[in-house]
Amino acid sequence: MAEPVPLPADPVELKSLEYRPVQVRGHFDHSKELYMMPRSMVDPAREAREAGRLSSSVQSGAYVVTPFHCTDLGVTILVNRGFVPKKKVNPDTRQKGQIEGEVDLVGMVRLAETRKPFVPENNPERNHWHYRDLEAMAKLTGADPIFIDADFRSTVPGGPIGGQTRVTLRNEHLQYIITWYGLCAATSYLWFKKFVRRTPGL
Fold it and tell me: Averaged over 111-124, what is the pLDDT?
């Protein structure tokens, strides 16, 4: 993994930094937690063990997203602190893990998501978020629309389990298929017109 860089002061720079580790210093505002749910914990070791099985031991829960005021930059961002099981979503059940005071964090920059087909709409009234709508999340919490996934080293006893980043690269296959089939169709048409129909003038 690349060495973390300081979080840029200019949000425009973040557009080219998705999945890039950045470092920040500041403090959490636990009173404005958001919950992305349902989610399962990213656990590469378990996923490797259970690859190919018809059933798995995946535990359902949520990602805890907490506003984080960056001391040096003077801005508040959103930090996905990590996974908690369903029974620990209520912060009263994990007071020990609610970090107080200034801390140093490293996390992966994440950009906004668009809602995929069959994914439910976000429900801000119930604080259920199914995808990253950074503008809506920022408006509700008073943060800037900047989002990072805290790394595993941010995990503290009793708190969310960090390192919950799944790398998803853009799938360009459909675009390639349409492009190449379009070229193939155009070439076939020109070939037919020139050599089969023997159109006068060609």
Answer: 96
18, pLDDT greater than 50: yes
Residue 35 and residue 125 in contact, taking contact as beta carbons nearer than 8 Å: no
Contact criterion met (CB below 8 Å) for 119 and 131: yes
Q: What is the pLDDT of residue 11?
A: 82
Rounded mean pLDDT, 69-92: 97
What pTM does this model have? 0.80
User: β-pairing, 75-85 with 147-150?
Assistant: parallel
Tell me the mean pLDDT in the region 196-202: 55
Confidence bin at 124 (pLDDT 50/70/90): very high
